[in-house]
Amino acid sequence: MLIDISIIVILFVLPVVLMSFKIIPFKYKIHDLGLVAFLLMLIVLLKGWGTQKLGLQLPAVGEFALPYLLFTCGLGIALLIISKLTKNTGKERWWKDSHFIYGFILVSALQEFVFRGFLIPELQSIFSSTILVVLVNALLFAFMHIIYSDNKYSLLMIFVGGIGFATMYIYYPSLILIAISHTVLNFIAVYFGFFTQERKRA
């Protein structure tokens, strides 16, 4: 258990702290995520995790497609409503932005491997309570986003979304479907300007 906790602190908390205090520049955020994902892949190999534990079984895609479709549509509509209420307009000429062409797909897939594919089994080995696993997973997911914003309402929105992602993955374990769902929702969020810029420090 101590090793599992150490992995979480070093690879999930420390990089965010270093980037928050600009010890690691914001422009290296994707490099940082990629390095963390690579190290976690090595840990997965050392632990001998199979495809089932990683949620990579192909039959699950067809079995869980409907719940993920409903989940993605529900959160997508919620994001559209929030953007309307906050008067966020869509990004102009987004198709010319490389982030929209490939960046958000890569980031979404890596985040799901890191926060759901790896972190949830790790948390399940630490906590016996599913509720605790979901809450800690969502907290760490929201904590990662402080590099983009320290607005409490934005972070609350991410925390609630994290609860949704964690709950879906626990009850419908498919890393492929959760990554697709995250990609779609991330596109909507980035299109309307949520969490794309470095937060301003006083």
TrEMBL record:
<feature type="transmembrane region" description="Helical">
    <location>
        <begin position="64"/>
        <end position="82"/>
    </location>
</feature>
<feature type="transmembrane region" description="Helical">
    <location>
        <begin position="102"/>
        <end position="120"/>
    </location>
</feature>
<dbReference type="GO" id="GO:0004175">
    <property type="term" value="F:endopeptidase activity"/>
</dbReference>
<feature type="transmembrane region" description="Helical">
    <location>
        <begin position="33"/>
        <end position="52"/>
    </location>
</feature>
<dbReference type="GO" id="GO:0080120">
    <property type="term" value="P:CAAX-box protein maturation"/>
</dbReference>
<keyword id="KW-1133">Transmembrane helix</keyword>
<protein>
    <recommendedName>
        <fullName>CAAX prenyl protease 2/Lysostaphin resistance protein A-like domain-containing protein</fullName>
    </recommendedName>
</protein>
<dbReference type="Pfam" id="PF02517">
    <property type="entry name" value="Rce1-like"/>
</dbReference>
<feature type="domain" description="CAAX prenyl protease 2/Lysostaphin resistance protein A-like">
    <location>
        <begin position="99"/>
        <end position="188"/>
    </location>
</feature>
<feature type="transmembrane region" description="Helical">
    <location>
        <begin position="6"/>
        <end position="26"/>
    </location>
</feature>
<feature type="transmembrane region" description="Helical">
    <location>
        <begin position="126"/>
        <end position="148"/>
    </location>
</feature>
<dbReference type="InterPro" id="IPR003675">
    <property type="entry name" value="Rce1/LyrA-like_dom"/>
</dbReference>
<feature type="transmembrane region" description="Helical">
    <location>
        <begin position="155"/>
        <end position="172"/>
    </location>
</feature>
<keyword id="KW-0812">Transmembrane</keyword>
<keyword id="KW-0472">Membrane</keyword>
<feature type="transmembrane region" description="Helical">
    <location>
        <begin position="178"/>
        <end position="196"/>
    </location>
</feature>
